[in-house]
Amino acid sequence: MTAVNIVCVGKLKEAYWRDACAEYSKRLGAYCKFGIIELSESRLPQKPSEAEIAAALASEAKLMSPYLDIKGAFSIAMCIEGTQLSSEELAKKLEEAAVGGAGTVNFFIGSSFGLDPEIKRRCNLRLSISKMTLPHQLARVVLAEQIYRAFSINAGAKYHK
Q1: pTM exceeds 0.90 for this model
Q2: Residue 70 pLDDT > 70, yes or no?
Q3: What's the CA gap between 105 and 15, in Å, rounded?
Q4: DSSP-assigned states of every residue in 72-100
């Protein structure tokens, strides 16, 4: 069974976001071993300098690196400049990753300042949920739903219309 992880910076603060992610996590249990890995967020001042932001991103990248080092994993950087895919196209990517031997698929979500360039460089795919800016908590829920939808599409389930 494929392992699918959302590796993200920060915790979900509101119960309704946690509940939504928990629901999709439960549903995904039928298709994959799903996990959400919450990494510590770097603390920055109210108006951080470019150097402070770069240092924070580098620090967060160090926490993400072990998940990039998983042998045979397919890694996806979630970033605004990434490719936008339809639900069907995401389903196909996940299927191709599994057929290609990826036992693990990791989706990386950075902090509000994004992902360190090294993380993006090391990923197999850069993916954007939308050209619109979304709160990180909502992006995590949308991503979990789309992962569930992708597995439903690949299984021929009725969830996707």
Answers
A1: yes
A2: yes
A3: 26
A4: T-EEEEEEEEEEP--HHHHHHHHHHHHHT
Q: How many domains does the chain have?
A: 1
Domain containing 104 equals: 3-45+58-155
Sign of the Cα pseudo-torsion (153, 126, 44, 60, in order):
positive
End-to-end Cα spacing for the chain: 25
Tell whether the torsion through CA atoms of 40, 84, 137 and 15 is positive or negative: negative
Q: pLDDT tens digit string along 88-129? A: 999 999 999 999 999 999 999 999 899 999 999 999 999 999
Query: Does residue 50 sit within a domain?
Result: no
Alpha-carbon separation of residue 68 from 43, 87, 106 (angstroms): 23, 24, 8
